[in-house]
Amino acid sequence: MCRHVARVGPPLALGAVLTVPPHGLLRQSWAPRRQRHGTVNADGFGVGWYADGDPVPARYRRSGPVWGDQSFADLVRVVRSTTLLAAVRDATEPGADDEAAAAPFASGPWLFSHNGAVRGWPASLAPLARELPVEELLRLEARCDAALLWALVLRRLRDGDPPGQALADTVLEVAGAAPGSRLNLLVTDGTTIAATAWGDSLWSLVDEVAGTVVASEPYDDDPRWREVPDRTLLVADRAGVLLSPLKEPSR
């Protein structure tokens, strides 16, 4: 269910990560190599990036398959940034949210994506949703599981939790409420990347040109790619990657 990627490093054209590599996100939309659930990611796509001097990212999102959007091909060829987060979507279930359900979700300096599915959605997360202020529920961009996960993460970020802690606590809370869920979450603030491996593949690469890349799967066959173990929190910046184990919630 979905593929996503984030990178932080020297200024680079977005396409150098998304479309130029032989197995970049563009190709992963129809031929992912390591996706464990689903086969084609054609239910929307998006990319978010940061401009110099502006902490609030820009986004480009659409509801259809990325391979049919020539504007996207032009955009990623010419736009350069130090940080990006992009995703292609395989919807958990049918809906009418269109591009509003496509990652990255955003608020302030943050970009967010979810690769996976919440087991028993939406009933399983109703108790957690009731804990959110009504105003936050009314502001949800879409009615999909990823949008609610973003609301749960965002609440923690706004309370001052660092991104890694916000993701880890959200994953453990949701996994306790909906066992069997796949919760690969990804967030960036423009300088750091945090991600979880929980039920699907996650990889990282540290390279002088590309910077630090965190992705659902490698976009080429560089032997320096490292697979992140399942049930792991990853926190990364330009200097490298730090991994911490996540424990299954007690039942």
UniProtKB/TrEMBL annotation:
Domain of life: Bacteria
Pfam families: GATase_4
UniProt keyword list: Glutamine amidotransferase, Hydrolase
The EC number(s) this enzyme carries: 3.5.1.118
Catalytic activity annotation: gamma-L-glutamyl-hercynylcysteine S-oxide + H2O = S-(hercyn-2-yl)-L-cysteine S-oxide + L-glutamate
Top-tier EC class: hydrolase
Entry-linked InterPro entries: EgtC (IPR017808), EgtC-like (IPR026869), EgtC_Actinobacteria (IPR032889), Gamma-glu_amide_hydrolase (IPR052373), GATase_2_dom (IPR017932), Ntn_hydrolases_N (IPR029055)
Pathway: Amino-acid biosynthesis; ergothioneine biosynthesis
Domain Glutamine amidotransferase type-2 as annotated: residue spans: 2-251
HAMAP family in alphabetical order: EgtC
Functional note: Catalyzes the hydrolysis of the gamma-glutamyl amide bond of hercynyl-gamma-L-glutamyl-L-cysteine sulfoxide to produce hercynylcysteine sulfoxide, a step in the biosynthesis pathway of ergothioneine.
Descriptive protein name: Gamma-glutamyl-hercynylcysteine sulfoxide hydrolase
Organism of origin: Streptomyces yaizuensis
Gene name tied to this protein: egtC
